[in-house]
């Protein structure tokens, strides 16, 4: 008998990965958490049946959500990470000795526990002494913060269920207030390709643009996400992600990456025409 994990990417499109065995299946207050072992992608984490990370392609997502802002502002010291329970984003951030503090706000403690047990290659730095874990709603956490952080990374689930509030104008406005004068917000920005994902992407862009003086999107290729074409948002009070890139400094750090490099950094902000049109439709 064969076991397959299947995700419905649209009403008419499904994506399947053959599963060797199920390693975890737990139900938290917020969601169902599963970990499967697969031949092609290694271990994979799903929440409520939606694919979050795979061991094989997580490096793309986590390198691109962290190294892009870090290469624009090498002075980043105090970071807030929202969501990100698998630990991959924190793992990349801890590679910078210059970062002094990382507050990570994950609504679901069980996601962290499951990932520590079954996905140690991602969760391996959650015990770093600079990391402070808060198990609460990121939407509420950020409300009380004023000009504290140099960087906020929103590594959330999609805009439904517990992640819904992390795509609202109220949330982005509170992130703006929580950032210092040269602060940067990077967020998981959905996909431009399939209709429903593209609508979510347009809504997020519209809200961010109404709050931040500078807002951009950049693209990555993630084989296991719907369509493989995914976007991150880069919003800031001052910086332009391409003209303010300090490539020489970032390259001098000697951080070994598998996807990110400073040439790709410049290129990933050049998006295809259909994406430009979707973004402009909003403006
Ligand atoms: N890379 C993944 C993706 O985009 O598919 C996201 C990874 S991470 C596992 C997302 C995390 O965000 C989940 O663990 C979820 O519990 C958390 N989350 C969702 N809503 C949240 C909220 N309002 N506050 C804090 N964390 C939240």
Cα Rg = 18 Å
Supply the number of helical segments: 10
Q: What is the average per-residue confidence, as pLDDT, rounded to a whole number?
A: 96
Distance between the termini: 52 Å
Strand count, sense and barrel status of the largest sheet are: 7 strands, mixed
Q: What structural class do helix, strand and pairing data support?
A: alpha/beta
Shape field: globular
CATH homologous superfamily name of the largest domain?
Vaccinia Virus protein VP39
Number of strands: 12
CATH architecture of the largest domain: 3-Layer(aba) Sandwich
CATH fold naming of the largest domain: Rossmann fold
Protein traits:
single chain; 283 residues; alpha/beta; Spermidine Synthase, Chain: A, domain 2; Rossmann fold; 2 domains; 7-stranded mixed sheet; binds S-adenosylmethionine
